[in-house]
Amino acid sequence: MLNGTSARVKMEESTPSCGGFKPAAELGLSPTARFLQVELELNLLLRQLKFSDPVQYIYSPLEYAWDTHRCFVEKYCRAGQSVLFLGMNPGPFGMAQTGVPFGEVKSVVDWLQVTGEVSRPAVEHPKRRITGLACTQSEVSGARFWGFFRKLCGEPELFFRHCFVHNLCPLIFMSASGKNLTPPELPAGEREKLLGLCDAALCQAVQALGVSMVIGVGRVAEQRARRALSAAGVDVRVEGVMHPSPRNPLANKGWEAVARAKLTELGVLTLLSDT
Q: What distance separates the 2 farthest-apart alpha carbons in the chain?
């Protein structure tokens, strides 16, 4: 999706909130089905948004990579999970390629064993082609994230027994040069309208899943989750862990040790033991 530099954000006057949200059971849906429904509803709302400079390209992997994303959710999202790891938005060589949060291709294919077809955005940047599960470039953040839990758990079933992974915003933004633009880098008014929709969807997703703790991966995701869930009156604990991004000098010095210490402090590490 390509937007002109003079385009302005357009959206419905009212932003959906969590008020009056019905749990999955009341709708006759499983937590997994309700979670997917929340994501599809968010997709529809996000299609109404338009962005101005510096945004020139927008990829929506929950549309063109819905097949692999649904495979991931249906395989690993289950009742009884208590912890939701929350990222901010897709990376160009992670979820943008695979439809899986922090979805570095090797981890998605070899460890998570996600399968499915990935098509392509309607308009692609020539330097940011989508090749799906055939992508040969590794995303460092995703390799660190899933690599850590692979070492810790051995098998994905042990991780997903109590935990699931999600992104606050499902869109990836790029400038004319192909530079990745995170939501905090968007124009303030457009950013808040975008994240207002994502906040509401997060509240609904958390209630659908019934988790008791949300762990923001990175300070921005943590702060956004705390604000959104508190404002909506959703009773869930919100914590944070350092983001594994290579743009973070502290993460480059040993992200796994930092993550292990934090998850031990939060009592999550014991959930990932097979004893």
A: 58
How far is residue 183's CA from residue 189's CA, in Å, rounded to a whole number?
11
What are 137-184's pLDDT values in tens digits?
Answer: 999 999 999 999 999 999 999 999 999 999 999 999 999 999 999 999
Q: Are 221 and 86 in contact (CB under 8 A)?
A: yes
User: Phi/psi at 239 (nearest 5 deg)?
Assistant: -130, -175
Angle CA(75)–CA(80)–CA(82) in degrees, nearest 5? 100
2: which strand partners?
57
What pLDDT, in 10s, does the model give residues 38-66? 999 999 999 999 999 999 999 999 999 99
CA–CA dist 154, 157 (Å, integer) = 9
Q: How far apart are CA 17 and CA 14, in angstroms?
A: 9
